[in-house]
Amino acid sequence: MQIPIIDFQPFIEGNLETRQAVAQQIYQACHEIGFMYLKNPGISSQQIEAIFTRSQFFFNLPLEVKQQLAWSDEISNRGYVGIERERLEPDKPGDLKEAFNVGKEVSSYNATPNIVINKWLPEQEDFQSEVLAFWYTCCQVADQVLQAFAIALQVPEDFFTTKHDQQNHTLRLLHYPPITQQPKPGQVSAGAHSDYGSITLLFQDRVGGLEVQARSGEWILAPAIPDTVVVNTGDLMQRWTNHVFCSTKHRVMIPTDERIMRSRYSIAFFCHPNHDAEIVCLPSCRRENSAIYPPISAGEHLLSRLQATY
Fold first, then answer.
1. Is the pLDDT of residue 129 over 90?
2. Which SUPFAM superfamilies does the record match to this protein (predicted)?
3. Which of 137, 171, 239, 280 is most exposed, with the fewest beta carbons within 10 Å of its own?
């Protein structure tokens, strides 16, 4: 099974016929494997290179500086996550990676309205502005992809975007440091998992390491391809579509070659519906008038998954 490469520019710029053709390619990719590469997604290579430079700057800071921004709770889900702090497979040791989570500047939970919850270092305005600009660009790309999903699934084109308009998305800078000592038994860089939300945009550096599980159970490589972004469907999209679109497990293993001594960087944009959005099976995805899952609110689902991870 190969992860397909889909040119997204005809969807962004084309007429109804070309948009439907791209949406059909996306439908096939999401149905068969849950992963795809989007070429020409609407983000310049210069902006992507710049955010990777900012990410390397942040992770090169001393640990005690990064810990000033430490992740503290599932509701905000912001800040620095140290090595081994997250455990994507609960029965294995903590993952050999560190991360920095950013979302919109204010909380959307009713209990804490309009409170700035991102965590920033003082006197790092350039870092803050560039990371937030990239977050906003990803919001725009995600909305375009969600429009394609809507066309593919035969619902109104704004069906998904209106359920994501609170922009409860998380941008995650990720660093997998060189392995300098023997890992614990069963320890990996990022454990096998599926993503929690609706869709994910993933940007990789050239070191690579991402593996995707095909339906056969085989793990296949998903290397970085220039001028593309990896897009995959998450658990809530799988629930919405009654498994018509699949939420596929993926992982990052510890390299077995010279890459073990190199840093790997990636950037993930996790697209989540509004917290109060009800995730219920789409009419076009019902099988014999039955739904696999009961309705659930997107916020309730996300909190339960984060609580199980940390």
1. yes
2. Clavaminate synthase-like
3. 280
Query: What is the rounded radius of gyration, in angstroms, for the C-alpha atoms of the chain?
Result: 19
* pLDDT of amino acid 114: 54
Angle separating helix axes 16-32 and 125-152, nearest 10 degrees: 90
> If we measure between CA atoms, which residue out of 223, 232, 228, 231 comes closest to residue 264?
223
At residue 55, what is the residue type? Answer: S
CA distance 76 to 119: 10
- Token readout for 262 is 């190199």
Quick one: pLDDT at residue 287? 78
Domains (range + CATH), the chain:
33-289+298-309 (2.60.120.330)
Rounded to whole angstroms, the Cα distance separating 41 from 6 reads 10
What CA–CA distance (Å, rounded) separates 105 from 107? 7
C-alpha dihedral sign at 287, 291, 297, 299: negative
Q: How confident is the model at residue 106 (pLDDT cuts 50, 70, 90)?
A: confident
| Backbone phi and psi for residue 102, each to the nearest 5 degrees, phi listed first | -135, 140
